[in-house]
Amino acid sequence: MLPKDKMDKNFFQRRFNWSPNMAWKKILFSAVSALVIGTVIGLTMIRLFASSEIAPTEVTQVPTVDKDDLQIEEKDNPTDQTEQITIPQLQGFVVQLGIFSDEVNAEMMIQELEITDITPIVWQQDGEYFVFGGFSSSEEKAKEVASKLEAQGVESYVKKWEAAEKQVAFNEADTEWVQNFIQLLQTSIEQGNISQEEWKKMGETEVNSEHLTLLINSIQSEVAAINTSEQANLFLLSIWHQLGQIE
User: Fold this and answer.
1) Looking at residues 8-35, what average pLDDT do you find?
2) What residues form DSSP beta bridges with 86?
3) Domain match, 108 and 186 both
4) Residue 41: which domain range?
5) How many CA atoms lie within 13 A of 127 on its CB side?
6) Whether the Cβ atoms of residue 135 and residue 186 lie closer than 8 Å to each other
7) Dihedral, CA atoms, 186, 220, 174, 237, nearest 10 degrees?
């Protein structure tokens, strides 16, 4: 017969089907299960936190521009607008030295001429190149210039010269300058003389148009070289021609 303590132990093992090895297995299984579950939960939480920190991609919508709004912006920017200005009919009397169908030949004639005090200009019109050695609002004064040229051995003749009135579109920011320029040119031609101070001021004004910038550069360079009335009148003819070339 077994002692009482062993009998109780055997009874307990048989009653609950328990053994020391089975206890360790259950403990080990519980620990591994807890570790696996904890790892899975941890990874899941990390993914949740990581995804919450990433800002969703925003879709930027391109605003549509209404045609009326665009027109308002254009009106607010006068440098992009143009205005029609009338270039009035101008006329006078030129001293013509020659006419060519080729600009090169016209320039060659000027280089070959031995003329003192003046430099003839080339005027392009209707596919032809005219060489002018003088200009005046008065036919008599134009003939006086022709006589001086003939005394230097240069053949010439006087004829009336005019340009028809036309409309030209200029930048709105430059319209005041253009109007003042046309008025000064017209007055100078009619009076037959120029005010160098007024023309110098015209050449000191800043403009936006490229064509007008070239015109201003010509004014600056040519006005400074004027010493005689013949030079002054040829200056007016040159500036008149450049104005007529602007379309």
Assistant:
1) 54
2) 167
3) yes
4) 4-46
5) 0
6) no
7) 30
